[in-house]
Amino acid sequence: MIKFADVALMTHATFGMLCIIASVWVFVDTLNASRGNVVRIKLMSRAVAGFMWLAFLVGGYWYVTYYYADKALILKGPWPFAHHLVMETKEHLVIMLLLLTTFLPIAASGNLVANKSARNVVLWVVGLIILTGMLMEGSGAIIGMGVKLAVLPK
Ligand code: HEM
Fold first, then answer.
1. What is the pTM of this model?
2. In whole angstroms, what is the distance from residue 95 CA to residue 82 CA?
3. Which residue has its alpha carbon closest to ligand 1 atom 20?
């Protein structure tokens, strides 16, 4: 039987991945900023922020409602660092990623075609979002493995 908790966990990771994919789109479009794609850059920047807030709301709900059970398993299992180090780090990366993704549409509201430094700000912000997002993905996989190894027969 498919439970809401399981769908919510997978949904947050999906929104996280959509945030990363939209960020790569903004990065490549900004490298080639022109009158033809500047509206698209602004729209995709908003999509980056939207997907991250959705990942935060769904992932945050899952974290406060269901994570306690997985945490107990991880701490008793062979990979307690998956909680002590990785989940603790992920909790802090989330706040940085929320700030960066919320700032991106503001940074992208400048004249990206004529203003090189405005383009550079967008490239740095979206570059940091892509790197931090991949850290979120990787840390999620390590936490999931920590749970799996705790329940698998030795
Ligand atoms: C870019 C954003 C994010 C990405 C790409 C991402 C990705 C993932 C992935 C792939 C997993 C493993 C899922 C599994 O084991 O099936 C995971 C687990 C997890 N994520 Fe995220 N995540 C993101 C944001 C967040 C946010 C914002 C929160 C909470 C506020 C969060 C909380 C969690 C928790 C608690 C788990 C552990 C699930 C477990 O116990 O197995 N994640 N994440």
1. 0.92
2. 19
3. 140
Query: What token pair was written down for 114?
Result: 């004529």
Domain that holds residue 66: 4-151
Closest CA to 137 of 59, 47, 37, 41: 59
Buried-exposed string 118-140: b where 16+ CB fall within 10 A, e elsewhere: bbebbbebbbbbbebbebbeebb
Report the C-alpha gap between 68 and 98 in whole angstroms: 23
pLDDT tens sequence across 20-56: 999 999 999 999 999 999 999 999 999 999 999 999 9
Q: Look at the chain and report how many structural domains it folds into.
A: 1
Pocket test for ligand 1, best of 136, 147, 148 (most atoms within 8 A of CB): 136
Q: Using the atom order of ligand 1, give the atom closest to the CA of residue 147.
A: 41
